[in-house]
Amino acid sequence: MSTTDHTTVRGPGTGHRARADYTGGVYGSMLAASVVIGAGTLGSFPRLELVLLLLLTGVAFWIAHVHAQLFGARLAQQPLDRHVVFHACREEWPIVKAAVPPAAAVAVSPLLDLDVQGALWLALSVAVAGQVGWSVAAARRAGASWRLVAGTAAVNLLIGLLIISFKVFLKH
Predict the structure, then answer these.
(1) CA atoms in the 13 A half-sphere facing the CB of 118
(2) How many Cβ atoms sit within 10 Å of the Cβ of residue 69?
(3) Measured distance CA(151)–CA(137) in Å, rounded
(4) Vertex 115 angle, CA 112 and 117, to 5°
């Protein structure tokens, strides 16, 4: 599913399209978790460096996704005007938003008296929670049943646990 997909919500008295795709948020959360794992395997580093790495990686991938969307629009023969560019930027913004909570977790980790490893685990946990949260928000916004919401939450939690297992494997 691309970050430009939309879901049509049909229910009593509805028949309109609803913005229900939070793929960028799920993707951005997975990206943030991967950055934390990669940084954690390199040894000790300043926390500010990880905060900046998380945020700047989110911005870099946001730019790449906006470029891909605009390039795709260009291939579809749509004229590129400021509205199309603004729309692409807004559609992909959840990638950046998803990097903020893990970065904030690293930033506040000294206040929680966490060492560098504790900060990494906190950031990784926040990223996985974000991944699950974005998927639940997408499912709810799309009007999914509670069963489907629980299913997508479970799948994203399993993916998050798989990412966490990579950290455990890389550390040992």
Answers:
(1) 9
(2) 20
(3) 13
(4) 115
